Amino acid sequence: MTTRTTFLGLGAMGSALAAAALDAGRPSVVWNRTPGRARALGERGATVAETADKAITDDGVIVVCLFDHQSVRAVLDPFAADLAGRTVINLTTTTPNQARGLATWAAEHGITYLDGAIMAVPEMIGHPDAAVFYSGPEAAFEENRELFDLWGRSDYFGADPGMASLRDMAMLVGMYTMFAGFLHGAAMVGAAGVSAAEFARRQTPFLAAMTGQLAGLAATVDAEDYGGAGQQSLEFTEAALASLVTASLDQGVNVEVLRPVLDVVRRQIAAGYGGQGTARIFEELRKSR
Ligand code: NDP
């Protein structure tokens, strides 16, 4: 029995994962749809498989890191029968329900399926500030822990295969809305001739300081105590956001990113909660519309 790890997908992320395994001395088989991308890993000692079916002939775990859910199905479906009894660790970004669907598909074919979500860019793989979230069978997580810890911190979120993805996606919402907010602000000052670089130098420490507010918001939400002392009221926030919209429009800046935040605040005020804390928009957001 070998302990080789198979890597399917050698894009920026798949290559980084395989490289970390090779650097740790783990025998690895690598495959990529476009063959040229495997060459560098081959020079570092990986066994390069010309086809996906040749890559999975060994008995080690199979790490999948492809573009999206559809590409995972395109690569794995033809070999479902051959994968029976094997462990597939899918680190491709999928939605929670796509991960659950893959787990169901795997179970139907006798495959052990662990889903993963990578909280890092490729350059961070192997560094302590990288994290990878996992969910699915705990035994599969524990058995492969040594491999996982080569990539960064390994966090396990339970048997529901969708939970790693859900955690990942919930965190990415914060990232993308922050990026959009930053770009909105850069457009505002940019209209007055200020460079985005100068703006970023001031915005970065401010946003970092503001993350200190998150724990307080979380405590309010968890306690469902939006009337507690010291909270910024919805009415106060409405006035602030209305000014931001006006100032943006005065600069000729599109308010498509900002406006929905004001709308959510206004809906809570219209529902009679204007004097309560702004964290109450959590109640508005968790309603299905
Ligand atoms: P790349 O675009 O660099 O690589 C995509 C990979 O998917 C390539 O190996 C590509 O093969 C392969 N691929 C795409 N479609 C198919 C298909 N139909 N059949 C077979 N292979 C296919 O992406 P990354 O490596 O950066 O990302 C991989 C996954 O990791 C994604 O799900 C991404 O969301 C996730 N991730 C990436 C992060 C990052 O910062 N890069 C951060 C966190 C997660 P080919 O070379 O032939 O095109």
TrEMBL record:
Residues 1-18 form the signal peptide. Belongs to the HIBADH-related family. The keyword ATP-binding does not apply. Residues 160-287 form the NADPH-dependent reductive aminase-like C-terminal domain. Residues 6-153 form the 6-phosphogluconate dehydrogenase NADP-binding domain. It holds the Pfam family RedAm-like_C. GO terms for molecular function: NADP binding; oxidoreductase activity. It comes from the Bacteria. Keywords: Oxidoreductase, Signal. This is NAD(P)-dependent oxidoreductase. The keyword Transmembrane does not apply.
